Amino acid sequence: MEALPQTLLFGVLRSGLYALTSLGLAISLGVIGVVNFAHGEFVMLGAYIGFWLYVLLSGPLGLGPAVSPLVIVIGIPLSAVALYLVASGIFRLALRPVLRQPELNQMLLTFGLSILLVNGTSITLSPQAKDANLDWRFDVFDLGFASVTYARLAVFAVCIVLVLASYVLLQRSRLGKQMRAVAQNRLGAQIVGIHVDRVYEIAFGMSAALAAAAGLMLVFQTQVSPYVGLGTLLKAFSIVVLAGLGNLTGVLWASLILGLAEQIVSQYVPGGSALRDGLFFVIIFAVLLARPGGLRR
Amino acid sequence: MALLEVTRLVRRFRGLAAVDDLSFTVDEGKTLAIIGPNGAGKSTTFNLISGLLPTHGGSIRLRGADVTRAPAHTRTRAGLGRTFQVVQPFLDLDVLDNVTVGALFGSDRHRDLAAARAEAARLCAFVGLGEHLTRPVASLTLADRKRLELARALATRPALLLLDEVMEGLTPAEEREAITLLGRIRAEGVTLLLIEHVMSTVRDLSDRVVVMDYGKKLAEGTYAEISRDPKVIQAYLGTEAEA
Amino acid sequence: MRRDLAGWAAFLIVVAGLPWLGLGGDRYLMLLANVTLMFMTLALSWDVVARTGQLSLAHGAFFGLGAYSVAIAFKLWALPPLLGLVFAAIVGGAIAFALGVVTLRLRGIYFAIATLAFAEVWRTVALQVPDLSGGTVGIAMPPLFEGDRIASYYVIGTIFVLALSLSLAVRWSRWQYAVTAVRANDTVARVMGLDVVRVKVGLFTASAILATLAGAFYMPFITHTDPFDAFDIGRSVSALVFPIFGGLYTSAGPVIGTIVMRSLEEYLRVTPPWKDGYQVVYGLVIVIAVLFMPRGLLGLAQRYAGRWPWRSSR
């Protein structure tokens, strides 16, 4: 029981990353209505950018202790912009023509993209998992009741800032209002003059940018490999499903629940550290069983 | 004899009663029309009767049997057919195949494929689609799609046919054709329950009218009676009852 | 239909005769033949479920469940593999029925997500019960028919014929109308008198049993598996890529799609840059098919060659 405060703390800290990862998915699902199976791969690509930055900054440039903060400061905008452009391109070339087709076709398309990206990365880079030995992953901050690595704190801080910034954007800005209008009523939005296709494109790009930022922060926590996408996707799905379709604030709560649940299960349930990986399944099916009518828009 | 008995039907959406303590009866051979302003709960009532929405209270009896909890397909096989306000043909199938679906599964007869297709062809001719059997549905005009809706519903051998705003979107000439067709359907022994906005249709076809507003039954009677009812006129404030 | 039946009969005669046409002596080719029939079974079973409008990502998991069922039955009760097939079918059927009922009312995308979650969790489960499943090390059993690949070919051949029969039976009977109506609009289908629950759950269960049988064959054929091999997401991918490529909602499509794509895969697997990432081709095929070739190879053939022995018009 002495471990409880630390467990809870870790759960909260972890939920930051989950919130950032799921927010993008919630936006593309809520605004465009498309389930982006490649979302996990956007995260993965962000992680690779982070890893590449780490190698560049610590290797040839030999920047030592400045590497960790620099990876964040340079990496976030870099990965966000890069994936925004990639997603924008994907939208124009592949997704937009399919939006008028049945839902299942859209799903298949993003699923195909996911496979393309995973295996494309595996071929062009390498299927091997890589570790970024950032010093923040090892430097520890002692809080008395718990010791936390700088990495966990940094990940949480960055993710929360980005999530809050996104909320502000969605609530206050003109673009945000347009996105919410389109999410609620596509036809009505068109009638008042909103250029729906452009809003879709921006929403998709934004969801990829958020995913990429989340991916970048992943290098502070775990190994990077082409295959991190699927697990990430499933967790994000479980959060979005739990939060309820279109409920963006719910994403914060659902992320918190998942983060805490994982830590608690991992700490207190026998054999928990492997069960932790199966929590997404429990959440998804529990929600689906409780709301058997499915989830409405 | 009472073909359909709706008793104290209730359906709520997020606390708001879309259908509130609604009761009426449809007698065999007597056409009943349900009218009312937009949002009165008419389509919801149809969805409750045909089994697409669960009720929150009340009961529905079809030919004396309680179907309140029965799934939609059971009600269809028991003799309840319906068309939809926004026509919904099976886009992946051609005209004949659309109707064949109803012929195959809508009742306990015609389980044999060849017989079902023959019946479907007969019904297509009956509604005036005889020339278009193999056409893809997407190429049909609105009037023809409505004919298809009708043929498909008829293929399920209904005793009671629910018609949801059949006249919507039709030209006056098409409306007249539709009324003739509905008359022929009636002559085949099918009882009609309509939701309509076009008052001339209601006047010409219905034996009795139920007026709904805010989910409740506002008035009931013959067309002449309800069109003089001050409550009804008030509910339609601003809308002239067509003479 | 009679013309199609003749075509299929001819095809089956060729398939049955393959070992006698000179292939029998070559162990590698017989391996390919066995595995191709296995994948054709998987592809046909996936296609049947797709006809009701449900995009299942769980078929690879049923494959893995089949494999583990046979292996565990052998380990616990020394159940010989042929009986193990029956056991696996029962297990797979029961689990599929439960999954089908639970996911019944889910709209297409949520159904897909649910099946994906279902598929992914089994690997964790298998790792959690090492006493039963062997954990990361995996589980093994003696080879089917002591490694006689011709004998095993006829076993998987029988399973394949079952799958083909289901696929053709749905197409050539009134069930073709049922599945197409359910796929096109399941609300209206209900109003047309269709018991949509029975159609969806029934077909899903039958299809999953076939996928389970394919996996149940795989286990004694390959003699060893582990959670990462048995529940490899790649198999769920294959299950859907082959029919999409060959032609959805047909029987010839999954068959042709499997033959073409697996041949390509065999080549890519041993060719350097593609070795571990050969599935990139699958991703490419899906994207291209959705964008340009929604009816797959058969659709293309129909468009350019006019009539084709296996019509895919309905």
Characterise the protein shown here.
- The complex is a heterotrimer of chains A (297), B (243) and C (314).
- Chain A is mostly helical and 297 residues long.
- Chain A has helices at 4-32, 39-58, 67-98, 103-124, 150-172, 174-184, 186-191, 196-218, 228-243, 248-268, 272-275, 279-290, and strands at residues 140-142, 147-149.
- In chain A, α2 crosses α9 (228-243) and α9 crosses α10 (248-268).
- The longest helix of chain A has 32 residues, at 67-98.
- Chain B is 37% helix and 25% strand.
- Chain B has helices at residues 42-50, 72-77, 95-105, 113-127, 142-155, 172-187, 199-205, 223-228, 230-235; strands spanning 2-13, 16-27, 32-35, 57-62, 65-66, 80-82, 160-164, 191-195, 208-213, 216-221.
- In chain B, the strands form 2 sheets. In chain B, strands 6-7-8-3-9-10 form a 6-stranded mixed β-sheet, sandwiched between helices.
- Chain B is globular, with a radius of gyration of 18 Å.
- Chain C is mainly α and 314 residues long.
- Chain C is built from 15 helices and 2 strands.
- In chain C, α2 packs across α12, α12 crosses α13 (252-269) and α12 (233-246) runs parallel beside α14.
- Mean pLDDT of chain C is 89; it is low at 307-314.
- At the A-C interface, α3, α4, α9 and α12 of A face α5, α12 and α14 of C.
